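Minimal example, chain plus alpha-L-arabinofuranose.
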Amino acid sequence: MGPIVLNCHVTLDPAFRIGTVDPRLFGSFVEHMGRCVYGGIFEPGHDHAGTDGLRQDVLKLTRELGVTMVRYPGGNFVSGYRWEDGVGQVSERPRRLDLAWRSVETNAFGLNEFMTWARRAEVEPMMAVNLGTRGIQEACDLLEYANHPGGSYWSDLRIAHGVREPHGIRLWCLGNEMDGPWQVGHKSADAYGVLAAETAKAMRQVDPGIRLVACGSSNDRMPTFGAWEATVLDHTFDHVDYISLHAYFEKAGDDRASFLASGLAMDRFIDGVVATADHVAAKKRSRRKLLLSFDEWNIWYESRFAGHTNLDWAQAPRLIEDEYTTEDAVVVGSLLMSLLRHADRVGVACLAQLVNIIAPIRAEPDRPAWRQTIFHPFALTARHARGDVLRVEPITPTYDTAKHGDVPVADVVATHDPDSGAVTVLAVNRSETEPVLLQAATRALPGLRVAEHQIIGGIADELLLTNHADAPERVGPRQGRGAVIDAGVLAVELPPVSWSILRLAR
Ligand code: AHR
């Protein structure tokens, strides 16, 4: 290798903090879609399933992934869902048509099964209510069933179903992607805003301890983006705790340069929603900084999906089971950096989805579950990004992209855990050809040494490799070498197209 010509300089100082890492940034999502529930987390009769039908191998990988919170049951699915179908005697539950994914829903798995799964997975539940085909009453009924201790119709029904203790679900989404014309029960911003505000008020009467998420835009390419948030928040600002964002990224053709810079698009999207929320706050003379719930994000090769209207009716069909490459994992790492950088405003985030459907975990009927490439940056970040996110200003050259214009060749985010003194540095090198020498001044954090350095990517021939059923462990992180702290400066080489995480400890 020749001399390094690209540099990136940052200063790490615990005096400059953005915000605290909320563990809920490491959430995920389980939807009744394709094989996420049936054939994913739940597969009675599978070699790895317990007597309750829950796949133990998937549970183990979910815990290893470090997921803290899981959104359920949709997604587009929730907008036509009757939650009552999924409780009580399984043999008496109806089979229904799920219009969102043209699937037959058996309802063998429902709220109480999900809560059992969530306890085993050691995750907090985030529940979505149907504001597509249903409304205030059904949302309150579900909340009463889930959270009321007893002595009322719905809470007593839960007890009759064998669940004595209330579930105590704190996080609730007021519908899903209601701005999208594809959504069953799609609404105008005004109609949704009024319904969401009234539903929020009524739900808080049932349980004042809940935290509520209003639907923002399905993505920032929606023609209504910005105006949708402004109108919805005009109605709901005083009644909700979060506004949602959803975004899926993919590589267009062979435009790797733009794809690697997807984190900038995520930054812009977040900044736009923050600006809109603060605009509404200003109009309302409120000092409140509304939080954001990025409750669906990932890479999704959506252009390869024929669309739900072209599907044939089927039960638990194979839908959007994208197989991820090493370069996808590098991009997922950089998207996690974008979320961390906004830790002052993004309080919830969900990698969508958890199993099989555009997922870090894959499962098949005839073998144990395995980790996709994107599993690794998520697991490493969830494990190591702790405490405060530090404000860093990388000084680094830029490169030109077709989609995002000039883009910094490297990006850096750092966290500092005030309790242990440990620092975690996350860095991405987007150059396709050149290594970057990252130099981080750590003088304000004396006594640190490099305890661990893991790299994903960085080997040109391996960027398009995937993990699949016959090669489930082909791609994973590898040990970085040569990172040192000398005279108060961390120096580390970032190979081309790579994502690194370094743990600095005392
Ligand atoms: O995650 C797949 C789908 O993407 C979800 O059902 C929907 O909310 C989004 O459009």
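The first helix runs from residue 56 to 65. The pocket of alpha-L-arabinofuranose is lined by residues 31, 33, 74-76, 176-177, 218, 246, 296, 352-353 (CB under 6 Å).
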